[in-house]
Design goal:
There is one protein chain. The protein has 564 residues and is of the alpha+beta class. Among the domains are: 6-170, Beta-Lactamase, CATH 3.30.450; 405-562, 2-Layer Sandwich (Heat Shock Protein 90), CATH 3.30.565. The chain has 10 helices and 12 strands. The protein has a 5-stranded antiparallel β-sheet with strand order 2-1-5-4-3. A 5-stranded mixed β-sheet has the order 7-9-10-12-11, covered by helices on one side. Helix 1 runs antiparallel to helix 3 (154-203) and helix 8 packs antiparallel against helix 10 (523-534). It is flat and about 155 Å long.
């Protein structure tokens, strides 16, 4: 790779910066000169308009076309003026002259005030021509007899600016060339030549004879290069010291290596002995590892069996709840069915009595009226109880099917909660407890209906069994709300509540305060699993001793796996 001289790089950067700055200054001078010359042209055009206003106004007033033409031609011959247009008071052109007059819009009109004009080629102004009548020095619109438009060109301005700046720019370029030569010569004398000599001296350094290779320093020149040479000689002195130190160190290293060889021989014998001992330890560890693997396998098997047992217990709890529901519903259905059987028996007896009266031809109006009355009452009693039994059977069917089905469907939350409460009437009717539902008439959620049934049932039964054990008139409140994304269920009772210690374990499996009294401890655990896993929601519980228990459940309106 070719070497680039540092002095040349420095010189090029300095001169490039100077040249760029020079051109910027020259450009600024040209721009400033352009606007200055243009301003002078505009002022000169204004002076011409003021000077010729009186003579042109009189010529227009006297309709002296020769004088108007003479003045216009005189103006057109001026180098600065590129277009002249004279109009009368009707805006008709009287005279038009100049080399660039054809570029103007002849339809442009004038007003009572002076107006400026400028485009990419021409610039100028249009002034009204006023004629002063004798004895009247007032100027108004009635004195305006026409207008005078004078225009110059941007090219004319630029040409004059170029003439004004060309000589200074050429002088500046000549000065730059001379300056480049002088600076280059100074760089060669003060920097390039001393650096080349210093490089040659450094290239001749012999590391085997460092003391004879030191640089020769001139006492006449004291600058940065001299300082660099002093520093280089100091580096050589230190290098010589380091070389001597290195030789001493190498000798010590050779002695140390010999001692290390002797120690290695002794160490190899010790390593052989230690390796035999280590092999015995490794064999022992391998045997212990095998035993640990067997223990781990047994532990995994036990955990799997424990999970299966837990799932079986959960299913048993669900089936036990369903069995309790079946027993309660069957007992509840017996009452309306028994009343219906009694009504049908009584109606059969009435029909038999009526039939005998008809056969004996002894049927009276009173007997017929009594029969109709008894028939209506029996039929009404029979219909009422059959409807009640049908409602109980339908509610039980819906709830039982939902608890054993994994089907996903749209559920009206308010209506479904009512059905669950009806299905639990066998357990509620023997108590004085009250269930209050605060909910909109229609809240639609798409999920597994059995999950909702188990949630409502577990919460109500948990309150009946635990919260209202010593409370004769308990109150359960459901508050159901919704938004675009989620459903919120707030449940609370006014029962005995639970302590803060037990509240922390509420959702843990097999935790119960009824241990030994038939409690399995899986009710709230099932509730937690259904909300968090089946409904993909959250559940929290709050309670204080003798202050009741509340649950706050929140889950999506539509399950992620249940979207249409």
């Amino acid at each position: 790779m070719p070497t680039v001289s540092l002095s040349q790089k420095l010189l090029m950067k300095v001169l490039s910066s100077f040249v760029i700055l020079t051109f910027f200054i020259a450009f600024a001078q040209v721009v400033f000169g352009y606007f200055s010359v243009k301003h002078n042209f505009e002022q000169e055009l204004q002076r011409l308009e003021v000077t010729l206003n009186a003579s042109l106004s009189q010529a227009i007033w006297e309709l002296n076309e020769d004088q108007i033409s003479a003045i216009g031609k005189g103006l057109s011959t001026m180098p600065m003026v590129k277009a002249v247009i004279v109009r009368d008071e009707n805006n008709d052109i009287i005279f038009q002259g100049g080399s660039l007059a054809h570029l103007l819009d002849h339809k442009a009109s004038f007003s009572s005030s002076t107006s400026a004009y400028s485009d990419s080629t021409l610039f100028g102004r249009t002034s009204p021509l006023t004629f002063k009548f004798s004895g009247n020095n007032t100027i108004d619109k009635k004195n305006i007899v026409g207008s005078l438009s004078l225009f110059s060109s941007h090219q004319e301005v630029f040409s004059k600016v170029l003439i004004q700046t060309i000589i200074p720019v050429l002088g500046m370029l000549l000065g730059i060339a001379i300056l480049i030569y002088i600076i280059k010569a100074m760089f060669r004398t003060l920097l390039t030549t001393p650096l080349e000599k210093l490089s040659q001296d450094i290239a001749r350094i012999d590391l085997d004879r460092i003391s004879q290779s030191k640089l020769k320093i001139s006492s006449q020149q004291q600058d940065e290069l001299t300082l660099l040479a002093h520093s280089f000689n100091l580096m050589l002195t230190k290098l010589e010291e380091y070389k001597y130190s290195l030789e001493q160190t190498q000798q010590k290293l050779m002695n140390a290596n010999q001692q290390l060889d002797r120690q290695n021989a002794s160490l190899e014998q010790e390593v052989t002995r230690k390796t035999a001992t280590l092999n015995k330890v490794i064999d022992k560890l391998a045997h212990q590892k095998s035993e640990l693997e067997m223990s781990d396998l047994e532990l995994r098997t036990s955990i799997e069996q424990l999970k299966q047992t837990q799932n079986q217990l959960v299913e048993s709890e669900k089936m036990a709840s369903l069995g309790s529901l079946v027993a309660g519903i069957s007992h509840e259905i017996n009452t309306p069915v028994g009343i219906g059987v009694t009504a049908v028996s009584y109606l059969s007896e009435c029909i038999e009595a009526l039939n005998k009266s008809v056969d004996n031809k002894s049927l009276s109006h009173r007997q017929m009226s009594l029969f109709l009355k008894n028939s209506r009452e029996s039929a009404s009693l029979l219909m009422t109880n059959l409807n009640k039994a049908s409602q109980l059977i339908q509610s039980f069917k819906d709830i039982a099917v939902d608890q054993t089905s994994e089907a996903i469907r749209d559920v009206n939350l308010h209506k479904y909660l009512k059905e669950v409460i009806i299905s639990l009437q066998p357990k509620l009717k023997r108590t004085q407890h009250q269930i209050v539902v605060n909910c909109e008439d229609i809240i639609i959620v798409r999920c597994r209906a059995g999950a909702l049934s188990q949630i409502f049932t577990n919460m109500i039964l948990n309150s009946l069994i635990h919260a209202f054990e010593t409370t004769p008139q308990g109150k359960i409140t459901f508050t159901l709300t919704q938004n675009e994304q989620s459903i919120c269920i707030h449940y609370e009772d006014n029962g005995v509540g639970i302590s803060s210690e037990n509240l922390q374990q509420l959702f843990e499996p097999f935790f119960t305060t009824k241990r030994g009294q038939g409690g399995s401890g899986l009710g709230t655990h099932i509730l937690y699993n259904i909300v968090t896993q089946s409904l993909k929601g959250t559940i929290t519980a709050q309670s204080e001793q003798n202050q009741g228990l509340s649950y706050h459940i929140k889950f999506p309106r539509v399950m992620p796996h249940a979207r249409r």
